[in-house]
Amino acid sequence: MALWKGRFEKELDKQVNDFASSLSFDKRLYREDIAASIAHVTMLGATAIIPSDESKKIAEELTKILADIEDGNLQFNNSCAEDIHSFIEQELTKRLGDLGKKLHTARSRNDQVATDLRLYLRKEITVMDRLLKDIINTLCDISEKNLDTIMPGYTHLQRAQPVTFAHHLMTYSAMFGRDLGRLTDCSKRLNECPLGSGALAGTTHAIDRDKTAEMLEFNCPTANSLDGVSDRDFCVELASACSLIMLHLSRFSEEIILWCSHEFKFIELDDGFATGSSIMPQKKNPDVAELVRGKTGRVFGNNLALLTMLKGLPLAYNRDMQEDKEAIFDSVDTIKICLSTFTSMLKTMTVLKENMRRAVAKGFINATDCADYLAKKGVPFREAYKIVGGIVARCIKEGITLEDFPIESYKTFSDVFNQDVYHAINLENCLNERKSYGGPTGTSVKNQIQLMRLMSKQ
Ligand code: ARG
Questions:
Q1: Among residues 156, 262, 278, 436, which one is catalytic?
Q2: In this structure, what is the dihedral angle of CA atoms 145, 157, 172, 163, given to the nearest 10 degrees?
Q3: In this structure, are residues 110 and 199 in contact, taking their beta carbons and an 8 Å threshold?
């Protein structure tokens, strides 16, 4: 039975009922809906808007409904309710008769849904927060074991300058650290209570919005009732924070996929985190990373769906807004499953240090250091760059590295070269001399680890 019986002469068309129903996806808000209803009815009792014994009875029955849902004794299937709010209210009325009908005094589904959604997402943010801290700490753990694992750093996917695996991994840790900050920011603005905004214009009943806000552990009630029911900025903010988390995971996935290819072979995934091919026996595929990269699209899509859904809406509530839930739920679900699976994959992978070391030895990764050697001896850097460019070209022709290039040959390019050039281009020295703040040395990366560990403890 529809909630608006009275004004209407006909039942809702069956097709429209199915079309408009949100119960299949908003049923997951049942805990929040009941919590908000208990807070609301308790406030109605405390302010004597309804008698306090009635308020108590309603609250008690709501608690029972919650227990019945949790125990599987009350199911959502085959319900004729169009959403979770009407489902709970109908169930209450089924059990308490007319008394149940008092619950909806001084509220609307518009402030109800806004409150439920905020409560739900607030809880989900704490789960995502924990998962982000887990990946940050995992990256710190792996980095601690790889402070001197030299690997090529790349630009344009061309070997560029030496870094360590720890230095490289801590980049992702920094990204996830910023993601943590975005979640914290988002939950600050989200943590205001719309309950009591009514349909849009508040109510003539003498409600106490501070009390309901406090009971539901919000920082305060939302200040404007129209805004309370029409604001979904918190969904967009969260969806966009989710987009950035996926963007980071997706870039990381791309590297994992490259690193476990035979062309790189920098890591080996655990057998439990890779799949084989049904036809090619030699294959070990990085499906987790590929799926994470693939799922990024839907999270970006959800973000745009929310923005587009909201962009033309006049104040205050419009039914379009029902579309907010599937989008934000999907983003949150995707983030949770991706973060946790990806982290487990990282925890179990093997780092192939020797292969990384081999890759650094080729590719003239110390060419900048060779030019810096000349620059430190007074040759203008542009000039030094040109000289070393010529040396690299010669080495490529001869099929040798800078380390193998004889000192006599160096001297034909510039008489500034001395025996100590070999010290300057030694790969370990190239790495350890990059002492600038944020660089790849063990001391610097240890500092980065310390900062991230500190952040993930907050
Ligand atoms: N199912 C609705 C939603 O998710 C709840 C609010 C309905 N309000 C209304 N006036 N029809 O947005």
A1: 156
A2: 40
A3: yes
Residue 437: φ, ψ to 5°: -55, 130
pLDDT tens string 97-110 = 999 999 999 999 99
Active-site entry in 24, 52, 261, 277: 277
Distance between CA atoms of residues 327 and 237, nearest Å: 13
- Spatial separation of the C-alpha atoms in residues 135 and 127, rounded to whole Å: 13
- DSSP letters spanning 151-190: EEEEETTEEEEEEEHHHHHHHHHHHHHHHHHHHHHHHHHH
Give residues (CB < 6 A) around ligand 1: 22, 26, 83, 109-110, 113, 317, 319, 321-322
In this structure, the dihedral spanned by the alpha carbons of residues 339, 343, 344 and 345, taken in order and rounded to 10 degrees, is 110
Q: Can 277 be counted among the known catalytic residues?
A: yes
Q: Which two tokens stand for residue 62?
A: 């709501």
User: Tell me, what's the pLDDT at 8?
Assistant: 84
Q: How many CA atoms lie within 13 A of 435 on its CB side?
A: 2
Residue range 52-87, pLDDT digits in tens: 999 999 999 999 999 999 999 999 976 779 999 999
**Best probe residue, ligand 1, of 25, 84, 110, 326 (max atoms within 8 Å of C-beta):** 110
Alpha-carbon distance 30 to 120, whole Å?
A: 10
Average pLDDT estimate for 140-156: 97
Q: How, if at all, do strands 192-193 and 220-221 pair?
A: parallel
